[in-house]
Amino acid sequence: MSALKSALARVDPDELIALTRELIRIPSVVRPGDPGATEAAVAAHVEEWFRQEGFDVEVQAVAPGRPNVLAMLGDRAVGPTLLLEGHTDVVTEGDPGQWSHPPFEADVVDGRIYGRGAADMKSGLAAAMIAAAALKRSGARLGGRLVVGALVDEEADMLGVKHLVQTPLGRELTAAIICEPEQNELCLEQRGVVWARVTARGRMAHGAMPEAGVNPIVALSALVREAPRLERRLRMLCARSRYLRPPTVTPTVMTAPVKGVPQSNVIPASGARRARCRCSARLPRRRGSTRPARCRHGRRSRPR
User: Fold this and answer.
1) Which one of the listed residues 39, 47, 153, 154 is annotated catalytic?
2) Full set of structural domains in the chain with CATH
3) Which of the four pLDDT bands, split at 50, 70 and 90, describes residue 282?
4) Which of 168, 177, 197, 294 is the most core-located residue (most Cβ within 10 A)?
5) Helix boundaries (H) for the chain
6) Is 89 part of the annotated catalytic residue set?
7) Is 120 assigned a catalytic role?
8) What angle do CA 14, 16, 20 make, to 5 degrees?
């Protein structure tokens, strides 16, 4: 039997399903301001699983309660190093009452696993873990080193991968397979992302006397209205990709006031807006200036 067939024969679908459900049942929604709402518990579970399987394990403290867990198999002195990458954080579950099944119970119904992170990406992480274990159990001699990375903070600022690439282990990586769900298709290219964070400063006033203040929500709303126009412009500028969807500009969060308690009868002193812009790597640079384009409608003069 070939080494590949031997490893594949050691992939147990029931074990994969069980591990996926275990990971889903450990909530890992990161809630800023709550020190107990991090990836710590699920990272600890991943670490313990790999140690029981006999892997060399490295734990990297990225931020308080937010560790990267990396398991290694093989010898980098023999050949290249391949990373199977997953992440341990998941997006918010929203209102649990809107779910057909509880978000952290990992119910299996008609061959489907229901839960927050079932697709993105506790299942992908579990698949990488099982694949590495199958290779180890088969006794196959690798022509290099395999690393499985369970990284933090993929859903926000990418702190986990930013930390990894600055470490000795990260600098030794030759290539990576990102085990995200892609509708069971191989993704050969990906878009980059730019997060735009904009803060508008106004002047607080009572809602009955708006002329006495400057409303930052108006300026932020102007930016939101411009998002479709910016998206169309980016689609004209970017070279089309054979594999990728066109560029998108997606406003995701608007907050006012930035600090303090929002009140319906008060014009806030400040507001903030976040948006994400996803583009291919083939966006041409504008010649002659490094200054960002202005928002023509985002200003408001002070009342006289």
Assistant:
1) 154
2) 3-178 (3.40.630.10), 192-279 (3.30.70.360)
3) low
4) 177
5) 3-8, 13-24, 40-52, 123-138, 159-164, 168-171, 216-237
6) yes
7) no
8) 120
